[in-house]
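job 3f2a | input accepted
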Amino acid sequence: MTDLQIAGLAKAYGPGAAPVLDGLDLTVPGGALTAVLGPSGCGKTTLLRIIAGFLRADAGTITLDGRTLSGPGVHLPPERRRIGIVPQEGALFPHLSVARNVAFGLTGLDRAARRRRTEEMLELVGLAGYGDRMPHELSGGQQQRIALARALAPEPALVLLDEPFNALDAALRTGVRADVRAALRATGATALLVTHDQQEALSTADLVAVVRDGRVAQCDTPHEVYSRPADPWVAAFVGDAVLVSGTADQDMAATALGRIPLTDPPGRLREGVVLLRPEQLRLTAPDAAEASGTVTDVRFYGHDAMVTVAVDGIDEPIDVRVPSPTAARPGERTGIEVMGEATLHSAAV
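job 3f2a | predicted structure (349 res):
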């Protein structure tokens, strides 16, 4: 298994320019698929290009399997890094067959060995028998799987995936993500997936690194990042968040939604922002709950619905995720009940 270690990585585009990466630290365990998640401009693409060797870092070090790729006085060229890349939209060579695309990086093998390895990779991504086809004869999802097979064929130490599902429609994206995840696990590859899609990161990766302003704000399992975000910004970026002011009293927080149990002792923090997820709230009869308000909007998603409620005593309306269909209607009064535990954060990020 190959670990990727990044320490103090910094990059600015030009003298005096604001840093795009500002002392970024990240560890990717061997064999893990780690998603780098963040908004546009946070430094995701710059990070990927520096790891690949296409850009020089201004400071910091990158080591892969104990070998320094980038550091003071060190900058290995891309071809010496043993890194496979799956770019956006596949980027297959249009004049080469599928088999020749997959075999492109197998320069150190004889013809028979290249053929065997190519067939193994095509079978791995579920496209056995497609070797004689040309890229234009494939669907978008098939092209992405061929791009993955091409990246995995030389047995790289690390695979970088640069928002590889962006060009696919929503119905196809889920299936291709699952296929890519299965192929990476089958080979035991260490992989880094760059994305701005929260659902993609949470459903695909073993670890999620949330990047903000050129640094990793939090890196943990998808469950931990979602249920115990590092701060309110991470909470709101990773998923729908309900943030209400609260005052801690031991393991409980007093809020306008009632007293809510806290997952962790708040330490010295006594007043701050209580984080809940919309699925932790339930609509009840107005006189059966500590909090009540007026329904202002209902958004239907098929499998569930999001109900927006203007709660008495809270300045901003909050969202409640309910099973679909729902009987809630705009203008109606409703009670709100909290289920489960919450986390308390400082209001400052």
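job 3f2a | The mean pLDDT is 90.
job 3f2a | closed
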